[in-house]
Amino acid sequence: MIRRTFLALTAATAFAMPAFADGHSKDIVDTAVAAGSFTTLAAALEAAGLVETLKGEGPFTVFAPTDAAFAALPAGTVEELLKPENKDQLVAVLTYHVVPGKVMSTDLTEGMTAATVQGANVTITLEGGPKVNGAVISGPDVEASNGVIHVIDAVILPPEG
pLDDT tens-digit profile of 33-61? Predict the structure, then answer.
């Protein structure tokens, strides 16, 4: 529980960037949408039926891949995930980016693990800059009214099986 809370706090710090200056008054979804670089994430949350959840009380720590991160996936991946018949897989991918609680970047430690909403753990590394499962946390501590967002440069995928 302490690790989860720690990770959630770190994620909140990720969204505390100038583009997110009014983040405290907006929830995680509205904060990400207002930033303008998360249109794919917003569309995926909508397709997965997770918008209302992430507008909920929280707190949540979200490792939010940018549009460029989604674009870097193999051709056709996003389109496949957005198909209604692949909703369960889409939900698994998206919930793997969410940790219960509010974890700020100052809470992160080398080798720290945190259980995601999806169920599997993510691992934090700090050498060479903060990363979650190898994805660079490029915009830490973007605070929202119900948690924190850490901007990441890649889509992280849950382990198979």
Answer: 999 999 999 999 999 999 999 999 999 99
Query: Phi and psi of 6, rounded to 5°?
Result: -60, -45
pLDDT tens for each residue of 120-138? 999 999 999 999 999 999 9
User: Closest Cα to residue 40, out of 84, 4, 94, 88?
Assistant: 94
Report DSSP state, residue 34: H
Which phi and psi (to 5°) does residue 52 adopt? -60, -35
132, two tokens: 């979650």
Distance of CA 12 to the CA centre of its chain: 10
Q: How far is CA 97 from CA 22, 25, 33, 65, 153, in A?
A: 23, 22, 16, 9, 12
Dihedral sign from CA coordinates of 156, 31, 39, 83? positive
Tokens of 36: 């303008």
DSSP 83: S
